[in-house]
What we know:
Shape: globular
Structural class: alpha/beta
Distance between the termini: 31 Å
Radius of gyration: 16 Å
Amino acid sequence: MRINNEKDLLQLVKEDPWMMGVLETAKVLELPDWWVCAGFVRSKIWDTLHGFEERTSLPDVDVVYFDKHNLDEAEEKRLEQKLIKLNPSIPWSVKNEARMHLINNTPPYTSSIDAISKFPETATALGLSLDEHDELILTAPHGLEDVLLMMVKPSPHFQENKDLTPIYEQRLSEKDWKAIWKQLQVHSIHTEKSE
């Protein structure tokens, strides 16, 4: 199957009961500026483009939100436990992006979307959420072109900050996405030109 644009992607997700179930469960928490992001979205796209019949398993399902009024890591763990009780079959990971700049040693993020835009790869900088009317919404700060072309490239944040090069390169090595999705084109920071 071909995915050509955001409309195609949203339709694909709407037709996936497992993905919609994950989103509906995450929405129960009523978190501010929440998204289920990264591999949750990216892997669905690559699985579909590779014609996989079965979903590639995910090491975790990332739920991010933005709440600068409670930066306690224990709150994230409490929210994870709540999600585990709601659906114990999902490997939930919950992170408050209002706190994550302290972990990532960057200036504070202004929102969850700002944080997603600073994920290491453009193809990973994706998130899905449900609005107040349960309509599916996508954030793709760097667009969908790279993920749809099956290109793994550093996000502008990682491209512009050379001290992040080792983190990006280590992720490429550890994730070894090409072993799963053979058609990927993987770019190291060294072969990328700054835009």
